[in-house]
Specification:
Strand order of the largest sheet: 3-2-1-4-5-10-11
Structural class: alpha/beta
Order of helices and strands: EHEHEHEHEHEHEHEHEHEEHH
Distance between the termini: 57 Å
Radius of gyration: 21 Å
Number of helices: 11
Mean pLDDT: 98
Oligomer: single chain
Number of strands: 11
Strand content: 15-25%
Bound molecules: adenosine-5'-diphosphate, 6-O-phosphono-beta-D-fructofuranose
Helix content: 40-55%
Largest sheet: 7 strands, mixed
């Protein structure tokens, strides 16, 4: 393969730029040309292409967001649009595509591969919701961003002797809540993987108060319920002082952490090595510190991972 495309798609994540840089530099270093496809799959439909040279990725390794921009392109669900994208990319001489994104973006890559256009997926999402890889690019940084906020909220919760619900991102996957809840010493972690009723949540907080805790933190994954809704319930049903904070999109930005930059670089490097050998229909990831790749169909059909052991541990140490 002599010319490859690269795009970022879906929700952005810190470290996407580091992955773009690694792909561009590795590919050019291997004698290939690289075309940046802008605005996710939208750019493949609109022929929004830009040639990427070695210097086009200078000074981005430390930057959050994505220089190629990202988008959610609903048209890409349509078979005729996928075919149009392939025709546009072929016309531009692009022979294979690196897709940096989450599971939705990988489904787009899978559709292209099924139509005979080789793709390699790099996991870029803060949600850490891809089963085949231990970590996705951006998860670690997003957790650090949450933790910084959580630590500050703890200060004021402690001063005012109140319990604060902190809502973090994660619609179907509670990893951000789980990891930041552990690191932030939360009294309770509420995630989609564990069904807790409002009355069980109330019971846990009342018990914490009876055990002598005068303040506390509840880390809530957005997919479970809204923090405001839970706050109103607890205010109505208990005598505890309760507040709620929604962290929102700050979680998706910021300079990537060391581990996200290193992961992004390793994955970008590996993705190019596959395309260089004309291997497509793969996704790259990290398992037990080793860089791995899987067939895209296999990766997308793996059962969702949930670190129940970490959740149980958090229950013990939060007593
Ligand atoms: P993420 O990649 O972060 O999970 P989304 O689920 O929003 O984000 O998906 C990003 C984009 O990937 C979508 O806007 C669409 O362009 C493309 N996509 C998602 N699902 C599919 C699908 N089943 N077939 C084709 N393209 C898809
Ligand atoms: O990237 C995934 C995610 O961060 C989810 O956790 C969140 O619900 C969603 O994106 C929000 O994305 P947007 O507001 O850009 O649609």
């Amino acid at each position: 393969m002599n010319k490859i495309g690269i795009l970022t798609s879906g929700g952005d994540s810190p470290g996407m730029n580091a992955a773009i840089r690694a792909v561009v530099r590795t590919a050019i270093g291997n004698g290939m040309q690289v075309v940046g496809v802008e605005h996710g799959y939208r750019g493949a439909l609109d022929k929004s292409f830009r040639d990427m040279g070695m210097r086009s990725v200078s000074d981005i390794v430390q930057r959050g967001g994505t220089i190629l921009h990202t988008a959610r392109c609903m048209d890409f669900h349509k078979s005729e649009c996928q075919e149009q994208a392939i025709a546009n990319m072929r016309e531009a001489g692009i022979e294979g595509l690196v897709v940096i994104g989450g599971d939705g973006s990988f489904r787009g890559a899978q559709a292209l591969s099924n139509k005979g256009f080789p793709t390699v997926g790099i996991p870029g999402t803060i949600d850490n919701d891809l089963a085949y890889t231990d970590y996705t690019i951006g998860f670690h940084t997003a957790c650090n961003t949450c933790l910084e906020a959580i630590d500050k909220i703890r200060d004021t919760s402690s001063s005012h002797e109140r319990f604060t619900i902190v809502e973090v991102m994660g619609r179907h996957c509670g990893d951000i809540a789980l990891y930041t809840g552990i690191a932030g010493g939360a009294e309770l972690i509420i995630i989609p993987e564990v069904n807790l009723t409002f009355s069980e949540i109330k019971k846990t907080l009342i018990e914490a108060s009876q055990k002598g805790k005068t303040s506390g933190l509840v880390v809530l994954a957005e997919g479970v319920c809204g923090a405001e809704e839970l706050m109103r319930y607890l205010q109505r049903e208990t005598n505890l002082s309760i507040r709620a904070t929604v962290l929102g999109h700050q979680q998706r930005g910021g300079s990537p952490s060391v581990s996200d930059r290193v992961l992004a670089t390793r994955l970008g490097y590996h993705a190019v090595s596959l395309l260089k050998k004309d291997i497509g229909n793969r996704v790259v990831g990290v398992v037990k510190e080793k860089i791995v790749d899987f067939d895209i169909d296999e990766a997308l059909s793996m059962p969702r991972k949930f670190r129940k052991d970490l959740y149980r541990m958090a229950e013990v140490v939060s007593q």
